[in-house]
Amino acid sequence: MALAEERVLSIQSHVVFGYVGGKAAVFPLQCLGYDVDVVNTVNFSNHSGYGRSGGSKTTAEELKTIFQAMERNELLRPTRLLTGYIPGAEALSAVEKLASKLKHAKPSLIYLLDPVMGDAGRIYVAPDVIPVYKEMLPLATIITPNWFEVELLTDIKLNDIESLHQALEILHMKYHVPNVVISSIPLEPWLAEALPPSIRPTKHSDSYEPHLLCIASSFPTASATLNGRVLHPSQPIVHAQCVPLIPGYFSGVGDLFSALLLAHFHPDTTPETLHASPLSTAVSQALSKTHAILVMTQAVAEALPEEERLPSDDELDVEDPMRKIRRMRGRELALVRGQDLIRGHGITHVREMISWEGFGGSK
């Protein structure tokens, strides 16, 4: 829960039906005690995975008008800022100017920047947003890019442990991002082999059990301490954890994860667990709750009538668009049903982020 009265300004997409963007983020934040002010960067009927949708994008001028009116009315009062899907460079630049103004007025503002650009090698926003995101990185307290977005931001192809070191170094040192969290990373063999043995999945023959990896990297200030120990400011503190892969297509998972991470991040508190950090503690909670919601969503989907859980088939989906729509509809995140999980009730196992000892030393 929020430790004190706090207010989040959420700037991201909106859908009428389903749970992606703000619909996946605002309710969990409210469940955890935060007041949330919502600005929609798009207003769509549903997410694009359905194959067809309707609605409009919010223009840069419309965003500026909203921000200016809020400022005139003294309604820009966030203690935390969350930004997600913003489809174009002009709109993103308007958000960047607002974020800069808010950080200047309140340096303690916690800003979680989710640089939503694409996934699995495919970019789904205008490419001209990439340089704008690079300009925004120094404003962020935490960023939550996926694997592909890290490559876009750093111009580093992640294909071995050395390239991962280089990418994190660029984000921390060149762009001065103090906290980087990369979730839902496909666990390639080279990455699995480099992990601490305590979290490495079981290996069968030449392959590991299907898992996704989450990495959290914090770069401490020169005066930072952890459990009474002065931290060396020349290398990041890295934590990692694996979660079993749940098969099937889900939307809004990253939006939910980022909201939960922002909600649980309390930089001024001392972690109860040895070798934990404020970031790793927040990621542990976000990872555990997100996975629990996905398990519940999968159970709900598997209990649906057969016509609502037919497997993907591009040809059949083109012939009968409702076939795909029924499948997507049945896999929307079970947020309302899982609201107790969001509040922490019924979470029987917290997936603690484990200190990745030797990560920096292996460079």
The top-level CATH class is Alpha Beta
Arithmetic mean of pLDDT: 92
User: What percentage of residues falls in helices of 4 or more residues?
Assistant: 25-40%
Q: Which class best fits the helix and strand makeup? A: alpha/beta
CATH homologous superfamily annotation: Ribokinase
Across the major sheet, the strand order is 3-2-1-4-5-8-9-12-15-16
Largest sheet: 10 strands, mixed
Give the overall form.
globular
Name of the CATH architecture = 3-Layer(aba) Sandwich
CATH topology title? UDP-N-acetylmuramoyl-L-alanine:D-glutamate ligase
Give a concise summary.
This is pyridoxal kinase. This protein has helices spanning 22-31, 60-72, 89-105, 129-136, 147-154, 161-174, 189-194, 253-264, 278-302, 314-319, 321-329, 339-342, and strands at 7-15, 35-44, 55-57, 80-83, 110-113, 118-119, 122-123, 142-143, 179-186, 203-204, 207-208, 211-218, 225-226, 229-230, 237-244, 354-355. The chain is an alpha/beta fold and 363 residues long.
